[in-house]
Amino acid sequence: MNFTEGRFVYFFLIVYALWLCCRGNYRARLVLLTVSSLIFYAYHEWRIVFLILAYCVVDWLIGLWLARTRFPTGVVSLGVGFNLAVLCFWKYTPLLLRSLAWIALRLDIPAPPVPEHWFLPLGISFYSFTGIAYMVDVYRRELTPETSLWRFTLYKTFFPQLVAGPILRPRDFLGALQPQTLPNRPEAPLEASLLIARGFFKKMVLADRIGLAIDPYFVHVSDLSTAGVWALPYVYLYALQIYFDFSGYTDIARGLGLAFGFRWPENFNLPYLAGSVQEFWQRWHITLSQFLRDYLYIPLGGSRRGPRRTSLNLMATMLLGGMWHGASWTFLIWGGLHGLYLIGHRWWSGSALGLRLRALEGMPAWLWRGVSVLLTFQCVCLAWCFFRLNALGEVFACLRRCVTCEHGQLFAGGSADLSLWCLLGGYGLLIGGIAQLRQRPAIRDLLAHPEQVAPLYRGFAWGMSVALFLLAILLTPTGEKPPFIYFQF
Question: Catalytic residue numbers?
Answer without folding.
Answer: 325
